[in-house]
Write a structure and sequence with these properties.
The complex is a heterodimer of chains A (56) and B (378). With 56 residues, chain A is mainly alpha-helical. Chain A is built from one helix and one strand; from the N terminus they run H-E. Chain B is an alpha+beta fold. In chain B, strands 11, 12, 13, 15, 19, 20 and 22 form a seven-stranded mixed sheet that branches. In chain B, strands 6-4-5-7-8-9 form a six-stranded mixed sheet, with helices on one face. In chain B, a hairpin with a 4-residue loop joins strand 2 and strand 3. In chain B, helix 1 crosses helix 3 and helix 2 crosses helix 3. The longest helix of chain B is centred in the first third of the chain and has 17 residues. The chains are: A mainly alpha (56), B alpha+beta (378). At the A-B interface, helix 1 and strand 1 of A face strand 3, helix 3, helix 4, helix 5 and strand 21 of B.
């Protein structure tokens, strides 16, 4: 006998699915809006590391 | 809330915001930047949230949370300041006798630089050895370099400039270079827009900057171009001024890694016998190549940045890259003036640059491509 899982209770209508996805995508848009990169320049002028010499 | 100084620049469908209090650049989505602008100008959060909720069709509380989060991040969170131990050595006695005194001639300006011992000498001299003058009757500037209590000190014309611990040696070298360009080009620190960790090459009319991680071939590419009719303006330390945003000449020698010798020896037989410096901790062996620039007052406009990479057996690829990508690579590696007017000028300057990525293995093809970029012919 096939071990068939009854998924009937979890089924949703196409309309409901679109509604749920719609909500998620709205929040995803919000998350995307909050994405940023922070860039800090060097605090002082610097030479390349070890160019020439490395510590003393 | 007191308004914080923030600059905004739009490009490539993003906004770059600059925050004065931290001298920090942030790449944001345009909507987020517009919200920050509103917060900073004192518009109530509820009002901003209403507009956002309408725009994104989301519940008002979600918008409020989002806005408060932005406000916290950019306006109320205090920066964890890196408080350095104050090392006030201003009263320290300057040595009376220096083991090495060198005179360097840069155009018509003579610098007398005194080094306490061969150690201090080794941190500076190799890059400037090609400028040494033996017989000198007068000089215009005097630098003193000495180590005391495990700190390296710099005095310029009898003024204390700073002291650095061994791990900050590259900042000592950076400051030394900064003092040098201030004297050569008669510009104070506030008159510089930034200093870029790049190589600058010129065709006599304008400059192109080569950028990229250490080992990608910036200096080697510069040396190849210098042997093929172009001029070296600066290697490793590239200053750009505020007034006209020109790239200024820096007289240091080009550092050539051992791995590039094979490529460069046919062009520069003198490298065969030049002194070799071993930086053991970095597994780096370098020789220094004299720049072919004979006018260290030179300054030229720059419209192009090239992220360059030498890659064995690669077919040449040269593409324009997005400004945002270029910006993200450029900023963390540069010193950029923290003065508001200068930061605005930097953003305006950057907006008008062409940014390329160039991967090559064939020198002739690289030269041809760079020539085309110089001629706006790519």
């Amino acid at each position: 006998m096939k071990n068939q899982k009854n998924t009937k209770n979890e089924e949703i209508t196409r309309k409901d699915a679109i509604k749920i996805i719609g909500n998620y995508s709205k929040y995803a848009a919000l998350t995307a809006l909050g994405t940023y990169f922070i860039l800090n320049p060097q605090k002082a002028q610097a030479a390349s590391l070890g160019d020439p010499g490395t510590g003393f | 809330m007191k308004e914080t100084t923030v600059l905004y620049k739009y490009f490539d469908e993003k906004t770059i915001s600059w925050f004065k209090d931290k001298n920090e650049y942030v790449v944001l989505e345009n909507t987020a930047a517009a919200i920050l602008k509103k917060i900073n100008s004192g518009i109530p959060v509820n009002e901003i949230a209403k507009t956002l909720s309408k725009e994104l069709e989301i519940p008002i509380e979600k918008s409020v949370d989002f806005i408060l989060e932005l406000e916290k991040k950019f306006f109320t969170e205090k920066q964890s300041e890196n408080i350095e131990m104050a090392n006030d050595f201003r009263n320290i006695k300057r040595p009376k006798n220096f083991e090495f005194i060198k005179y360097y001639k840069i155009n018509n300006i003579i610098f007398k630089i005194s080094f306490l011992s061969d150690k201090e000498l080794s941190f500076v001299h190799p890059k400037f050895a090609h400028l040494v003058m033996e017989e000198v009757t007068e000089f215009q500037n005097e630098f003193e370099v000495f180590i005391n209590h495990n700190y390296i000190f710099l005095y310029v014309n009898n003024t204390f400039i700073g002291s650095w611990s061994p791990e900050n040696l590259h900042y000592f070298q950076g400051k030394f270079s900064m003092e040098l360009i201030q004297k050569i080009h008669q510009k104070e620190e506030k008159e510089w827009m930034g200093v870029f960790h790049a190589s600058a090459v010129s065709d006599g009319k304008k400059a192109i900057l080569f950028l990229g991680d250490s080992g990608n071939g910036k200096s080697t590419s510069l040396a190849i171009l210098q042997a093929n009719g172009f001029t070296c303006l600066a290697d490793d330390f590239v200053p750009v001024d505020v007034k006209k945003q020109k790239v200024y000449s820096f007289p240091a020698a080009i550092s050539i890694k051992k791995s590039s010798l094979e490529t460069l020896l046919p062009m520069y037989p003198e490298l065969e016998s030049s002194a070799e410096y071993h930086f053991k901790r970095l597994h780096k062996i370098v020789r220094y190549l004299k720049p072919n620039n004979d006018d260290f007052f030179a300054n030229l406009p720059c419209n192009d940045l090239i992220f360059i990479k030498y890659q064995k057996d690669a077919t040449l690829v040269c593409n324009r890259i997005s400004k945002i990508d270029a910006f993200q690579q450029l900023v963390p590696d540069s010193w950029l003036s923290p003065i508001t007017e200068n930061a605005q000028i930097f953003l305006d300057w950057f907006e008008n640059l062409n940014c390329y990525q160039l991967v090559y293995s064939n020198n002739a093809e690289m030269i041809e491509t760079v020539s085309k970029i110089f001629k706006n012919d790519l």
